[in-house]
Amino acid sequence: MDIRILENVEEIGAAAGRIICDFVNEKPACVLGFATGASPVPTYNYMIEQFNEGKVSFKDVTTFNLDEYCGLPEGHKNSYKTFMFENLFSKVDIDPAKVNFLDGNADEAEESRRYAEAIKAKGGVDIQILGIGRNGHIAFNEPSDEFTDEAWKVTLSQSTIDANSIYFDDTEMPTSAMTMGIGSIMRSKKIILIATGSSKAEAVKAMIQGEVTPQCPASILQKHDDTVILLDKAAASLI
Ligand code: GLP
After folding, report:
1. Ligand 1: centre distance to CA 37 (Å)
2. Is residue 238 part of a domain?
3. Ligand 1 pocket check: which of 12, 36, 68, 198 to mutate, most ligand atoms within 8 Å of Cβ?
4. What is the pTM assigned to this prediction?
5. CATH code, domain with 173
6. Is the dihedral of CA 24, 15, 221, 173 positive or negative?
7. d(Cα 232, Cα 87) in Å, to the nearest integer?
């Protein structure tokens, strides 16, 4: 793990954004894996800035998002697809035909197969962006007794529901989601995990210094050979 402690969220966004933009300039038809939540937003802002300055184009990039809620209709304002269009895709030249999402309303087994095949057909994910949940979850892989492999349908934990329900004002937050599995995340060639704020400090400590266990899904990243962990001081306060 390449662990970097930076001053603030803007520096973290620029550090992650630079890695991505440099890579896209080297390999324009690359495959990027995106995450939702607050953590990657400064990274997306940096990418938008670089695009606006004419320093990078995403027109040949293919994207795969990590996860999607079950039970929300297409186009719902709280869906992760809407989040990605609002925070990144509509602001750069990404081709909407090249963006991929899990369908939270599809049959679990068929959807898992479809996503795995789509990722494989593109040659795998080159760079995967990750956040981390307060309980150590990555994507929506909650603490459990075993590491998952391909995409699956998860029942969300109370910790995740408490953390994410602030985004749901007039809709009840879904209690399940389709998520890429740990195996699919680990097959990404490079991973950039972003954690900021003191609410992530325990999870960050367990991820970096704890044993590798599905009780802290992010701890598996200790076994990935090209993972960059970008932290602010608060998230790094217990390591
Ligand atoms: C959600 C997402 C995760 C994300 C996590 C942390 O549960 N499924 O992919 O990493 O929230 O979000 P935030 O960055 O807002 O703290």
Report:
1. 4
2. no
3. 36
4. 0.95
5. 3.40.50.1360
6. negative
7. 22
User: Is the residue at 237 inside a domain?
Assistant: no
Nearest CA to ligand 1 atom 9: 139
Residue 135 annotated in active site: yes
Q: Within 6 Å (CB) of ligand 1, which residues are found?
A: 35-39, 66-67, 131-133, 139-140, 160, 164
Tell me whether residue 239 is in a domain.
no
Backbone φ, ψ for residue 143 (5° rounding): -50, 135
Q: Is 107 a catalytic residue?
A: no
> Hey, which residues does 31 pair with through a beta bridge?
62
Long-range contacts of 91-97 (CB under 8 A, 24+ apart): 91/48, 91/51, 92/47, 92/48, 92/51, 92/58, 93/51, 93/57, 93/58, 93/59, 94/58, 94/59, 94/61, 94/63, 95/59, 95/60, 95/61
Site to probe by mutation for ligand 1, drawn from 72, 81, 101, 132 as the one with most ligand atoms within 8 Å of Cβ, is: 132
The tens digit of pLDDT for each residue in 41-85 reads 999 999 999 999 999 999 999 999 999 999 999 999 999 999 999
Range of the domain at 6: 2-232
pLDDT tens for 3-38 read 999 999 999 999 999 999 999 999 999 999 999 999
Structure tokens, 209? 């210094």
Q: How many CB atoms lie within 10 A of CB 15?
A: 18
> Is there a domain that residue 193 lies in?
yes
67 classed as catalytic: yes
The total number of structural domains that make up the chain: 1
Atom of ligand 1 nearest to the CA of 160: 7
Q: Is 137 marked active-site?
A: yes
